[in-house]
Amino acid sequence: MAKKKQSLKLPEIDHPLFRPDPVYIKLHEEMDALEGKDREQVSSILRHVIKTDLYYLCKYVLGFWWLCWHPHKEFANVIQAGKKSKKTPLYLLPRGHCKTQMFTIGDTILE
User: Peptide bond before 71: cis, by omega within 30 degrees of 0?
Assistant: First the structure.
């Protein structure tokens, strides 16, 4: 039995608030173009993005589809930059801005 080709397209979420990020749409289009040529290279690119980009991990891998570029991408960048410094920064965001999902769940998995 032949295996189905798995596409690397971004998940299609049927919700009016879901907004795919243009940066990642372009990334997935480039990986789809490489798909038939070098599966290992595509896997390597995707693995690198997942290991280095907390926002991508949370939104597209863990399924927190409600995250948006602003402010969540910026928050993810601050979390990742804070790990490199010796001082722990203070994170002030209102309730309901997915601090727990990104910081506790996503960042723990990323480590």
Answer: yes
